[in-house]
Amino acid sequence: MWKGRFAQDTSSLVQQFGESISYDWRLFPHDIAGSIAHARAQKNAGLLTEEEFNSIESGLLGIKADIETGKFEFKTSLEDIHMNIEAELTKRIGPAGAKLHTARSRNDQVATDTRLYSRHEAGELIGALSLLQAALVGQAEKHAATVVPGYTHLQRGQPVTVGHHLLAYVEMLERDKSRLADAAKRLNVSPLGSGALAGSTINLDRRAIAAELGFDGVTTNSMDAIADRDYIAEILFAVSLCGIHLSRLSEDLILWCSAEFGFVTLSAAHTTGSSLMPQKKNPDVCELTRGKTGRLVGNLMNLLVAVKGLPLTYNRDLQEDKPPLFDSIDTLKMILAVNTEMIAAMEIRTERCKAAASDPMLLATDLADWLVKQGVPFRHAHELVGKAVAESVKTGVPLDQLDLTAIDPAYTADANSVFNLERALAARTNPGAPSVENVKAQVERWK
Ligand code: ARG
User: How far apart are CA 141 and CA 135, in angstroms?
Assistant: First the structure.
């Protein structure tokens, strides 16, 4: 492609070092769509005849079909997807192919391709996230009324329901979807026409090209358009945060399927055994989700650090944007698919949840609220309940069986009526609180 300037071939070591075709080949549908739109603008500007445009278009579509069916031979010597396609086009259709690169650089080309790819993949991820949400909502519907302790510091706090706990993740995933949609909207402007860095002396209709490719508009500074990769960073951040949410869900499930908690049974299809310990049933999917989230965060760091010291505009370092982007998209897609299947199939052990939630200590806060309703200031009520808790811990008498009236005259015989789990949950009716009614309404909303 640059043989005019050089008297020597590129060393084969440099070719191996510098190639990106081994991974950027997957940009081909976007590269081809971009080239067709670019060629059409050339035709409309009188730079290509109708016949030349037609042969470029059919040549590119033929190459696309060959790549899709595995018949295309990618060459490392042609470095990247852009040059592989262009060289093959010229080989197939002759001189018209050599006109395609007029008023274009691989710099605006690669920025276009990765924007189109990111936009497409953000849509795919949003769809996959909705499926995982549906699996969680399905379990939440079944267990809208299954009481379970809610934890802070991994210590039992207050009663919630399994449905409420699972719907917390549905909320997080909804925000992950909106972050992806937001990133996809912001990146949806066309860099084509920015050239290598300073546009071109040949003016093509940038807006027409953008419209053909489904962009909302065109970039407004040629240097920015080809130098920045913030749109990839945003996708990588949205993907990382989504992974982090799913890593926390994984951690919950790992705890829940331990003998100590015993709140959930994962299906045999989604667990593994041990080659040594015959009794083991391990939550590997959850652990791998947690582990692979490290890769997602690493990929974000990879890109941020690659970009941080670069002078404007394009530097070859930017070729390193694609491996983390592709890896994060692939990894999250896999995480979403496998977790959707696993969540849909898991069994909640209702009895174990109920047994854990029957700990009267979970209603200590409710007892303080009861005192407040009798006119005791909350700080004082907190102290009075603290005394009752201390007494229970010291004597081994469960909190709900203590004679509270012996602790302080603020307690009356009615105080022990607080220790009714069903009533305690039913009282939590404020928006966002876990009364069974509320959880059922949320399930309906999500459905
Ligand atoms: N393979 C290159 C990349 O991914 C394409 C752009 C090359 N531009 C250049 N000036 N060498 O970044």
Answer: 10
